[in-house]
Amino acid sequence: MFLLTIALMLAWFYRPYIHDNNIYDFHFADNILNLFFIPMMTLFFRGVSNKYSYNKVFIISTVALIVLELLNALLKPALPSIYTIVAIFLGALITFGVGKLFKIK
């Protein structure tokens, strides 16, 4: 819930502020939810069920988000944003690091 609250607050307040004032923030405002998605989904599914290991849930969340981004690119006549893919991988790296730091299995 904590990560979801942070992500939504940034998406609802930070993103409009950045766009309204034409501030360049290295595309962070556009990719806030992608950055927080993998940690949120990994922790959510691990909290709901211990059926799958932390690493398996982490990999499924990462692959699912990348596939969704690529499907979105197929449905729209545009390439997937490299910034979105980078945000996904940053979220995955943070999630992986936290899992290793706390030795979550």
Structure description:
With 105 residues, the protein is an all-alpha fold. The protein has four helices and no strands. It is globular, with a radius of gyration of 15 Å. The model has no long low-confidence stretch (mean pLDDT 86).
| Biggest beta sheet attributes | none
By DSSP, the count of extended strands is 0
Structural class: mainly alpha
Distance between the termini: 21 Å
SSE arrangement, N to C: HHHH
**Principal-axis shape:** globular
The rounded Rg comes to: 15 Å
Integer average pLDDT: 86
Question: How many domains, in number, for the residues?
Answer: 1
Instruction: Count every helix, treating DSSP H or I runs of 4 or more residues as helices.
Output: 4
Low-confidence runs: none
- What is the percent of helical residues? over 70%
In what range is the share of β-strand residues?
under 5%
Topology:
Blueprint: H1 2-20, H2 32-48, H3 54-75, H4 82-101
Helix pairs in contact: 1-2, 2-3, 2-4, 3-4
